[in-house]
Amino acid sequence: xxxxxxxxxxxxxxxxxxxxxxxxxxxxxxxxxxxxxxxxxxxxxxxxxxxxxxxxxxxxxxxxxxxxxxxxxxxxxxxxxxxxxxxxxxxxxxxxxxxxxxxxxxxxxxxxxxxxxxxxxxxxxxxxxxxxxxxxxxxxxxxxxxxxxxxxxxxxxxxxxxxxxxxxxxxxxxxxxxxxxxxxxxxxxxxxxxxxxxxxxxxxxxxxxxxxxxxxxxxxxxxxxxxxxxxxxxxxxxxxxxxxxxxxxxxxxxxxxxxxxxxxxxxxxx
Amino acid sequence: xxxxxxxxxxxxxxxxxxxxxxxxxxxxxxxxxxxxxxxxxxxxxxxxxxxxxxxxxxxxxxxxxxxxxxxxxxxxxxxxxxxxxxxxxxxxxxxxxxxxxxxxxxxxxxxxxxxxxxxxxxxxxxxxxxxxxxxxxxxxxxxxxxxxxxxxxxxxxxxxxxxxxxxxxxxxxxxxxxxxxxxxxxxxxxxxxxxxxxxxxxxxxxxxxxxxxxxxxxxxxxxxxxxxxxxxxxxxxxxxxxxxxxxxxxxxxxxxxxxxxxxxxxxxxxxxxxxxxxxxxxxxxxxxxxxxxxxxxxxxxxxxxxxxxxxxxxxxxxxxxxxxxxxxxxxxxxxxx
Lengths: 270, 337
Ligand SMILES: Cc1cc2nc3c(=O)[nH]c(=O)nc-3n(C[C@H](O)[C@H](O)[C@H](O)COP(=O)(O)OP(=O)(O)OC[C@H]3O[C@@H](n4cnc5c(N)ncnc54)[C@H](O)[C@@H]3O)c2cc1C
Ligand SMILES: Nc1ncnc2c1ncn2[C@@H]1O[C@H](COP(=O)(O)O)[C@@H](O)[C@H]1O
What we know:
The complex is a heterodimer.
Chain A: E1 2-6, E2 9-11, E3 17-18, E4 25-26, E5 32-34, H1 36-51, E6 56-62, H2 68-76, E7 81-85, H3 95-108, E8 114-118, H4 129-136, E9 141-151, E10 154-161, E11 164-171, E12 174-178, H5 190-197, E13 203-204, H6 206-209, E14 224-229, E15 238-241, H7 244-261
Parallel strand pairs in A: 1-6, 1-8, 6-7, 7-13, 8-12, 9-12
Antiparallel strand pairs in A: 2-5, 3-4, 9-10, 10-11
Helix pairs in contact in A: 2-5, 3-4
Chain B: E1 8-11, E2 14-15, E3 18-19, H1 22-34, E4 41-46, H2 54-58, E5 63-68, H3 77-91, E6 95-99, H4 104-115, E7 119-123, E8 125-128, E9 135-141, E10 146-151, E11 158-162, E12 179-184, E13 193-200, E14 213-217, H5 224-237, E15 240-243, H6 245-249, E16 270-274, H7 280-283, E17 291-296, H8 302-305, E18 309-312, H9 315-336
Parallel strand pairs in B: 1-4, 1-6, 4-5, 5-12, 6-11, 7-11, 14-15, 14-16, 16-17, 17-18
Antiparallel strand pairs in B: 2-3, 8-9, 9-10
């Protein structure tokens, strides 16, 4: 089987600070991680490979040259090989332009049986890249998957939806986006990390993908960010101190009064 | 696509064979965007025969378009998205919005890719730019650290998924009149995806994302036993119960309760945060709540700063007292009536 996993390098959010003057994000460029949900996608691919010897797992990412780090991480976690889509013409891609590049890369990689992606990334947070790429490749997009089992040329999946779990059988090839429930990614062994650190990856640009430079990046992105602003988080706060019995009672009463104003509790006496 | 149509299309949320109430919120957004212009708001329902399509007209739609796929059984994403794309191509709306639910967040990207147009995810605010009439789509970005406003200037339709509870439904108006239309297609019956079963989540727990009120506990609840006090408070209020990542990691609550960047996003009428510091990753999942109540011993905590009402004190003690007071009120009401 040929399995492709879409992975994305995202900022490690532990140290996000805001510039108090400009409201701009201050991020440490060396502080990046593999998108957490993509770890689950890779782990699932590795599981499939365990049950289906001969499976080849390819990690695919579009990003800056430093995204090789994410590919190495993916290989430490079970991918056999990786491909990096990186070129200045890709800069400024929105989800449509990203999906177009990923779809072109999938076609170039040859017949694929299964594509795995995260349900969403922690920086883009759109969850759009998976289903968009599937639509471009004319594959079914099976989203929010929490269980995946291979059954011959089909997969049987459970989708986590608002009020329950949907079970589907899907004929391959298909694209699946995974939620955190699907597995617990184990920590890779040191040996695998050392091995992955030595791996190198082909780097493809628009030319290798058969795309015109105008098919990629900002020029090919239908959406434009027209404004970025700091949300006004602070509200004017009514403060009550729950000191001593009297303070505690007054505080509780203030909460109840507010719940009444908001019609969570019935107005009036009771 | 030609730029000659100006309608607003709203995708109905179909769940369990019925129209889900979040659809009324989407219709309210449609009306708001239609504004003073005579832009028709069309609500599209795919795959079910609605009991009361007029309901959506009372809530603000001008047209209700019910799309009959022509096959029986449940429609997986591929044929549903296919019908949706056909309807958009025929109707040529300027704007298409859908709720940011599992269904909307699956169908909309498929449709946008096939129509080769832009899609903005999970918007919390929509408006029309008075200068050019284009849709302004605002959403939290980078874990809620910033808000970004996005436009789709050169392609149609302009598409957005919108976070549930980002607007209130309009007051229903029984005098409102509109059109109810039915379109029937002859879709084939076999698709790569086949729905085998649906297991409804029968737990009596209130769905966090839909709750009117959410009670969330953090590390400041101190112990697992104290955290359990929140279950009583939630029960007394009919509230959904949430947790911070720190509380989940401490084993006080399952991950399904986590609110925040890597958990669920909620926007209830009232959010009560007990012993929660208000780190940015947590705020990302709840900051759009209408009213925020914080209980924290530290008056400098970020959660206190973003709250409308803050109680400075010991969270377990305040939670226990509040629960008692609520139960007392309830009993009085029962006894008195
Ligand atoms: C990539 C990433 C993703 C994350 N995603 C999430 C997420 O989805 N959701 C999430 O919640 N977090 C998330 N986090 C973690 C987040 O940064 C915080 O660590 C977490 O929200 C803190 O939880 P807390 O407020 O319960 O604990 P703490 O930060 O330890 O705060 C405890 C609070 O309780 C108060 N307190 C202590 N004792 C008492 C008392 N007796 N009475 C009253 N108040 C008291 C303290 O003053 C303090 O304000 C994420 C972090 C990262 C790096
Ligand atoms: N630049 C990218 N390269 C490869 N995969 C990506 C990229 N962006 C997004 N993805 C995939 O799409 C998923 C959803 O991302 P997003 O649409 O940004 O929320 C991620 O979990 C990845 O699997």
